[in-house]
Amino acid sequence: xxxxxxxxxxxxxxxxxxxxxxxxxxxxxxxxxxxxxxxxxxxxxxxxxxxxxxxxxxxxxxxxxxxxxxxxxxxxxxxxxxxxxxxxxxxxxxxxxxxxxxxxxxxxxxxxxxxxxxxxxx
Length: 122
What we know:
- By secondary structure, this protein is of the alpha/beta class.
- The chain has 5 helices and 4 strands.
- Strands 1-4-2-3 form a 4-stranded parallel β-sheet, with helices on one face.
- InterPro entries: YeaO-like.
């Protein structure tokens, strides 16, 4: 049975289909109280580095290069432990990767979902 990995905005309503709810942003979502997030975990160490996040600025035209750089970061020592933990979660349960960004399709959550499922566009 394949484990399902989805991405959603943390501001959306929870769903029984969510499985483990994991926030993958480095910074806490603006205006959200911790008790309203209904998280199982906040893995800020799996998020892109501050330098990469600032360079990207959620500009869709930079997404392919962002994806390449972020996947490289996931192999670095600074991300390896958190990335491994996320892989372990995904191996045993449904996982919903949560982010505050408005454009989930062009976010680190989308890159992580692709990475965890073994799909790669490049």
